[in-house]
Amino acid sequence: DVKVTQSSRYLVKRTGEKVFLECVQDMDHENMFWYRQDPGLGLRLIYFSYDVKMKEKGDIPEGYSVSREKKERFSLILESASTNQTSMYLCASSPHGGGSSYEQYFGPGTRLTVT
Amino acid sequence: QKEVEQDPGPLSVPEGAIVSLNCTYSNSAFQYFMWYRQYSRKGPELLMYTYSSGNKEDGRFTAQVDKSSKYISLFIRDSQPSDSATYLCATTSGTYKYIFGTGTRLKVLA
Questions:
Q1: Test the B interface: residue of A104, A111, A113 with most B CBs within 10 Å
Q2: Tens digit of pLDDT for each residue in B86-103?
Q3: Beta strand segments in B4-79, E
Q4: Which residue of A has its CA nearest to B93?
Q5: Is B82 left (phi over 0), alpha (psi -120 to 50) or beta?
Q6: How many residue pairs bridge chain A and chain B with CB atoms within 8 Å of each other?
Q7: Which residues of B touch A50 (CB under 8 A)?
């Protein structure tokens, strides 16, 4: 069974704080993703990583950075949290593909509130 | 036009009914199709994954892809109150770019 875990289920931070969200997967997947999910907007990709130390910007990278020092771990960093970053943050992983394998697995999510 | 369209619902059905959930997509390059179930305040859980056209069955769930009409369906037989959740369809052409529907809220009434 694929397991994607996220460091916190709920987080409350103040405006201007630096926030770290951590994600770990145990299936040796090459690809890892950070999304945010907001009502009416669906899932939006923040960043994607296809290998250690490699990253690509998604649709909404502004205000975020990421770090992938180990294959199983992908961190999302909010450099200076703002109230418009209050959201549900979802981490996901997927195998590299090839053949027909592109299914994506999600973690339980971190509900971040910035006050 | 959104690349993936999904009716947001809510869809209410009695227990035991057959549920049909649908998405349409616009890009013929999409080859891989997924259905997720998401309970309130939880992460999406992968239910079904299909490649290209055809049907795939897993217990009470059947996923169907019709590439000629760009239509994706999920059927739930003998629906249960525990099936009450939001169902998301998703697709990719095989790159890192996954396109998600906005989800259909399903309520199964006991």
A1: A104
A2: 999 999 887 788 999 999
A3: 4-6, 11-14, 19-25, 32-38, 45-51, 54-58, 61-66, 71-76
A4: A102
A5: alpha
A6: 50
A7: 96
The token duo for B62 is 């059947």
C-beta separation of A91 from A45 below 8 A: no
Q: Which of B83, B75, B30, B26 is nearest to B55 (CA)?
A: B75
pLDDT tens digits for B34-63?
999 999 989 999 999 888 888 999 999 999
The number of helix segments (H) and strand segments (E) in chain A equals: 0, 11
Q: Residues of A with CB below 8 A from B90's CB?
A: 104
Q: Which of A24, A33, A11 is nearest to A85 (CA)?
A: A11
Residue numbers in B near A66 (CB within 8 A): none
**Residue B33 has which token pair?**
């199709």
Non-local (6+) Cβ contacts of A80 within 8 A are A16, A17, A18, A63
**B80's tokens:** 């249960």
Question: What phi and psi, each to the nearest 5 degrees, are found at residue A20?
Answer: -115, 125
